[in-house]
């Protein structure tokens, strides 16, 4: 390899690394700015965590949104200069940025075990990325369409959609406010499909700029519609996750799950795992286990949300009083019955279920 070529590759890699670092800084900061906007919007209306969309009228949320878009654009351009093995692991820097900013700006304390969980997520995701199989770069939208319609990837896509629907329709109304894996899981699963469709759109744009028009292919527009639908879904549930849970938890778990599922989707779509050495496969499995361990540690160190006095003491309708008589018998009286000293009020049914 000539000195000029070597110098050119080094310069390209340096540009990619710098862009990836800038991208991580913008994305990490966007989590904080957006949550600040979500809190401000929730103080005057319905919170995003319970289905409100008042944050769309909050300028601070839009500043965070623009910041995230700038970060994503920088990340996209970084892949044009440097290989994924350099760019993708640097996305973990956004976790550190968001955790530090959340500590100082949002006053969200990151416990010691939470720090350990962050490190495990970062290390595990880095191991997966470093040992992830190389993918063949598609040269046309038609080629990506053939890869996307192969049985293996269709099975993955169908499974991803099915899991997302279960999380959205069944788990979200019941456990979304108490289990961080619901909202973040939806973002991560849908996100893996987003990357695949965005990649197809990106190739179409690149080929069109080079003079090979891809706008006439219906596949281009299908990929574009899938990308837009997935991005909207991701943003919706990411807002709910940020509005409901600690930012220092959302960022690393989202990063770990999103990176893992994206690599999995890419490997299935492009058949990159065929021909890998046993050591590489073993390293990837260790990475998966490490990420899972970090996610578990982070989940276990979550600070419980303080319940409001109104939530604890507002009785259900109708309010029920249990009357313990002198002979030991128990009778039930409704709200309109007169309350005496030997009545015990049960204002929350989950206290005795």
UniProtKB/TrEMBL annotation:
Subcellular location: Cell membrane; Early endosome; Membrane
GO MF: magnesium ion transmembrane transporter activity
Residue stretches spanning the membrane: 16-33, 60-81, 87-106, 113-132, 152-169, 181-205, 217-238, 250-270
InterPro entries, A to Z: EmrE-like (IPR037185), Mg_trans_NIPA (IPR008521)
Membrane topology reported for the UniProt record: Multi-pass membrane protein
Organism domain of life: Eukaryota
GO cellular component: early endosome; plasma membrane
One family name in Pfam for this protein: Mg_trans_NIPA
Keywords: Cell membrane, Endosome, Ion transport, Magnesium, Membrane, Transmembrane, Transmembrane helix, Transport
Record function comment: Acts as a Mg(2+) transporter. Can also transport other divalent cations such as Fe(2+), Sr(2+), Ba(2+), Mn(2+) and Co(2+) but to a much less extent than Mg(2+).
Family: Belongs to the NIPA (TC 2.A.7) family.
Subunit organization: Homodimer.
Name of the protein this chain belongs to: Probable magnesium transporter
Organism of derivation: Rhynchospora pubera
């Amino acid at each position: 390899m000539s000195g000029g070529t070597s110098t050119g590759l080094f310069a390209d890699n340096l540009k990619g690394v710098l862009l990836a670092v800038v991208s991580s800084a913008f994305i990490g900061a966007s989590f904080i700015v957006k949550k600040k906007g979500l809190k401000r919007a929730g103080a005057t209306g319905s919170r995003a965590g319970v289905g409100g969309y008042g944050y769309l009228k909050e300028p601070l949320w839009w500043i965070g949104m623009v910041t995230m878009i700038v970060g994503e654009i920088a990340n996209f351009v970084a892949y044009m200069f440097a290989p994924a093995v350099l760019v993708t692991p640097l996305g973990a820097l956004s976790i550190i940025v968001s955790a530090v900013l959340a500590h100082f700006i949002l006053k969200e304390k990151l416990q010691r075990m939470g720090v350990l969980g962050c490190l495990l997520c970062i290390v595990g995701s880095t191991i997966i990325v470093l040992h992830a199989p190389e993918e063949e770069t598609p040269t046309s939208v038609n080629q990506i369409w053939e890869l996307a319609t192969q049985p293996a990837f269709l099975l993955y896509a169908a499974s991803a959609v099915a899991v997302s629907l279960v999380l959205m329709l069944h788990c979200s109304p019941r456990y979304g406010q108490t289990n961080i894996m619901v909202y973040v899981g939806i973002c991560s699963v849908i996100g893996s499909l987003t990357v695949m469709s965005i990649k197809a759109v990106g190739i179409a744009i690149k080929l069109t700029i080079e003079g090979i028009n891809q706008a006439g292919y219906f596949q281009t527009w299908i990929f574009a519609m899938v990308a837009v639908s997935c991005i909207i879904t991701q943003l919706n549930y990411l807002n709910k996750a940020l509005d409901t849970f600690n930012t220092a938890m959302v960022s690393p778990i989202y990063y770990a799950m999103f990176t893992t599922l994206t690599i999995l989707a890419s490997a299935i779509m492009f058949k990159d795992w065929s021909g890998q050495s046993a050591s590489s496969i073993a390293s990837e499995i260790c990475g998966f286990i490490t990420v899972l361990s970090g996610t578990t540690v982070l989940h276990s160190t979550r600070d419980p949300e303080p319940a409001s006095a109104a939530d604890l003491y507002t009785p259900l309708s109708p309010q029920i009083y249990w009357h313990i008589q002198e002979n030991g018998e128990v009778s039930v009286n409704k709200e309109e019955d007169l309350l005496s000293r030997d009545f015990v009020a049960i204002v929350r049914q989950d206290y005795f279920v």
